[in-house]
Amino acid sequence: MDDREACSGSSKDTERLASIAGAFLSDNMNTLSKPFHKLFRRKKGFLRQSPALPPLRHSLADAAALPSYVDLQSRLRSSVAKEKHQKLLKHRLKPQGPGSNDRSMAERAVNVLTSIPFIAVGLQTRRARKTPEGKRFGTTMVSVGAAATAYHAAQGDLRCALRKLDYWTIALASTQMVRALFPSSSHQLRALNAASLAMMPFQPIAVSTANFGLAEVEFIRRSMEDRKLARAYRRHAAMGGIGLCCFALEDVAIQHGHHFVHSLWHLNACYAVASTNALMQRREAPECRQLNGC
């Protein structure tokens, strides 16, 4: 009984509190709702005063002109392929690196001085030759001397580029030497010249070896027919052989402390090239007789 009376008493108290709270809210509803009305009015005014969104400046045609994902992906692939191709082409150009010579100022000065005679030989060859092919060979020899001088005097990244130019001018001079020694109307000669020019940036040593080797064979053949030419060929072969040995053993000589082998290669090669003027003179003799110019 006591528990029932306690529960009924608590429920009565709850009902009284609820009735009192309801009466209080009904009497003071207007007072309590004023702040909410003000807040709602402010929000409503803010919405009314908010600026309108700007109109779209781009039309559907402009949107259609924008590159798609596929276009961007294809452009990215093409740019990557182009960059890869440029790097591959750069690595295929020969020779690579700045070279192993010119490690001291004395060696650099000697190499520069011994490169200048190539220019003198080229100028002398250009004056002495009668055919256009011979004169072009003299011009290319001038370019060989100029490229070698610039290469040995240069430093840094420019030296790598000038080393390529040095080798390329030598290969070009060998091509012009062959054209000066053989008839230009030969189809085999034209094919050889075209192949030499195409391979020159990638295999300049191979181009020079093939063309100078062909010139050596012609020099030997002509020297067997003429004793005077045989004397010139013996001097040519001796100096050319020494120069070739200096060029081939240059790296080994530098490792053993001999730093002026490259300058010896310059001098011997320069004399060997100058001695080919005797062969070119023999080659030009029939044409000079026809033109009554010699």
Automatic annotation (TrEMBL):
PANTHER family in alphabetical order: F15H11.13 PROTEIN, FOLD PROTEIN
The protein's name in its UniProt record: Uncharacterized protein
Source organism per UniProt: Coccomyxa viridis
Lineage, highest ranks first: Eukaryota, Viridiplantae, Chlorophyta, core chlorophytes, Trebouxiophyceae
